[in-house]
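Running log. JK asked me to keep both predictions on one page so they can be read side by side. First protein, sequence followed by its tokens:
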Amino acid sequence: MALFFSILIVLGSPLWPLEPNPVHGDPVIIVNITAKEFAYFENGELLLKSPVAVGKKETKTPVGMFTVTVKANQPYYRKLDIPGGDPKNPLGSRWIGFDALDTDGRIYGLHGTNKPSSIGYAVSNGCIRLPKETLETLYDYVEVGTKVYVTEENLSFIDIYEMIITYYQ
């Protein structure tokens, strides 16, 4: 009986991971919405860093640890029925969706833009816009299951990465 309750406590504990947490070496995308920058780490090395556009005040980019659940090449923009590849498509050439706010990766994501001048500003509906070349490189690196950490902390990307690896182990 004691073993049953011990197992129940461990499995019911909020400390029990529901999915694998990042460990040193795992790929991690970090978005700092205060600095309006993103970084991509793999094998403990910073491989990409770029300015980004983030959510505006009314539709802030959600903060927290998320997981990439969807990738799309030439994504369709269903909100306005704009096909992938169309110059009017605000998603650009790639979509890397993550599960923020209990969504399925089709609401929040990292994507391109048909307005490159928006990069560096808080102008989106909660998504993270990247420059085209950076996004396409990131898309090739990232697999479904990659962690996405979105923060407002005023720290260097190296410090944020080390904090993530330490905290989530």
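And the second, directly underneath as requested:
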Amino acid sequence: MTDPNDLTARELAARVRSGTLKAREVTRATLDRVARLNPAINAIVQDTGEEAMRDAEALDARIAAGEEGGALAGVPVTVKVIADQKGYATTNGTTLAKDLIATEDSPFLRNMRAQGAIVVGRTNCPAFSYRWFSSNKLHGTTSNPHNPGLTPGGSSGGAGAATAAGLGHIAHGTDIAGSIRYPAYACGVQGLRPTPGRVPAFNQSGPDRAIGPQLMAVAGPLARRVDDLRLGLEGMSGYAPDDPWSAPVPLTGPAVAPRVALVKRPGGIDTDPRILEDLERAAEVLRNAGWQVEEPTQVPDIREAVELQIDLWLSDAHSDKLAAAKLEGDPGAIALLSFYEERARGIDLATFSALFSRRARLIRAWRAFLVDYPLVLMPVSAELPFAQDEDLRGPEALARLWEAQVPQIGIPLLGLPALSVCSGVEAGVPCGVQLVAPPWREDLCLDAGEVLERSFGLHPPG
């Protein structure tokens, strides 16, 4: 049988639909690969193998009976443990939720299953999904497949590591401060943060999210190939009545002026020379593809977006968050929340209300900028992937890490889609660039991302 990892998700699904490749064969091969490779990286932390085989056999039977298999027919996917999957614990990486068994699938997963996707495992995250590192007391530590000394990223670090290792074609992740884009960057794969409302998400197992996550947190795909992201987005998306933010917006939009803003140091960050070099390479690739790439002297503020993001996410109900982190006993969550504890005390109702006026002004400025420049090319991070657990080295280290992440933290507050594209892996250290587009124009990110991917190539672990 053809190795499923040699096929794109679209090619694989086409063969399963035609009957030339059986979903059960693809699933068995993927589960065998998980059994071989996952113990070394601990990316998949909840086993769904038996259910996956049942679902694959049922899909083969439907196709044999003449039914349509779906756009994701037989495609192996993984789901982050932050999301409801019927019959499994929605742990979010905590012992506190180890028995929180979902009774229904989250709507994005319903959509993917309806298109024939097969869930081959559930992936790790840090406790409460707070960190750019992926370890917790319940599921253990996830390692970077390229280099165990580096973080696989977070909070969707299990998704990034599984994708890089070929443990499924499409991984589900979530992103409120870079939690899709950073694991993709750290693991040498591709990751798409969609526009809020594009991919429906709702956990029946728990309470509704607080205001910050409602406004900024999204679900989206990670994959080795940009076209796999495109197919994953198509499969996840759609209006769902149980997600009040979901919207039935077309996946493609009208033609735009082919102008790109190259922003090497968003917010004035001190960017690593290798990242700057890869941004220049990406700019030249886009120029050769017909894009007009410019370095504008005036770029809307992104630092204020970071500040507002911190207040809307971490400062809201901060004391409850810190109490839960202490009850869990997770050092990473405690370190982060303690770092912002004094700041959170200064957020009263009037200050919190004023955040939304400031947010509206920033969004207005960025949307106006994106009329002139429909695509922005910028770093994912100002630094190469962090050392494993580097955020536990004290407040100074934590402050430096958050400074490096300015390019990704500010984007969620602005409500924009963004794509992390791997630009290469050198001596076991991945790197990448970020593309940002106007709301609902993931298609622009994906189109440009495919151009970059053809030049940069794919980079599986050695």
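Observation for JK regarding the second prediction: The radius of gyration is 21 Å.
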